[in-house]
Amino acid sequence: MTLPVNKLQPSHLAPLPPKPSFGRATQPADFARLLADALKEPDREALRTVETSFLALQQSLAALLYTDAPTPELPRPMAALINRYGSEMEAPERQKIGNAPALSAVAGPPALESHIERAARTHDLDPALIRAVIKTESDFDPGAVSAAGAQGLMQLMPGTAADLGVRNPFDPGENIEAGSRYLKKLLDRYDGDLDRALAAYNWGPGNVDRKGIGRLPQETATYLDRVKNHFETFSAA
């Protein structure tokens, strides 16, 4: 059963945008049509309409995933659209409208923000950096598992998670706290050098210590670029 998004907002989350701003896309099928039309002829107004609709759907999905209150079964079409089109709208087509903000550029899902802010305070990190790592690692999916076995929002490898005392890597709060603690440890290890810390987070500190970062594997070089781009975007929001 797919429920209208305006029925899913729990009281402790920020209010959804008023109905007129996303009333044209309260169902996944409507959103898909809006997105298809906007990508054919991208312009600022069309993509802002899609963006607002997307964020409304995304916030409703967060309500279903992260609240303690009993919730109906997750409407799979909505989840599929969010997973598919969240990255789609950051493709080159999305950039044709100039300086309009990218999707998920202001913050992560509302239910994750308290965990991110708490971890940032505890470990003296910029919350925008934590968001950037989560965005790059898992795209804010707490159930993400990589081909290599990394788990959760900040993609902790099982050995690293065990060293950090993580009991459930798929728990958003536990994963963010441990991942942020590990990131801070790497920043301290490399005297605040963000490039080396991020390279170590992705490639392993042993590799960074032995080989340096002059010639990184392509995967790690791309990872650094993505995290730093997201960091810049989140910092400017």
Query: Portion of residues in helices?
Result: 55-70%
Low-confidence stretches: 1-26, 64-106
What's the story with the biggest beta sheet?
Answer: none
Number of helical segments with 4 or more residues: 12
Kindly estimate the percentage of residues that lie in beta strands according to DSSP: under 5%
Shape: globular
Give a description of the structure.
The chain is 60% helix and 0% strand. It has helices spanning 19-22, 28-40, 44-66, 76-88, 92-95, 110-123, 127-138, 158-163, 172-189, 194-203, 205-211, 218-236. α3 (44-66) crosses α4 (76-88).
Question: Topology, pairings included?
Answer:
Layout: H1 19-22, H2 28-40, H3 44-66, H4 76-88, H5 92-95, H6 110-123, H7 127-138, H8 158-163, H9 172-189, H10 194-203, H11 205-211, H12 218-236
Jot down its keywords.
0% strand, mainly alpha, 237 residues
Gist?
With 237 residues, the protein is an all-alpha fold. It has helices spanning 19-22, 28-40, 44-66, 76-88, 92-95, 110-123, 127-138, 158-163, 172-189, 194-203, 205-211, 218-236.
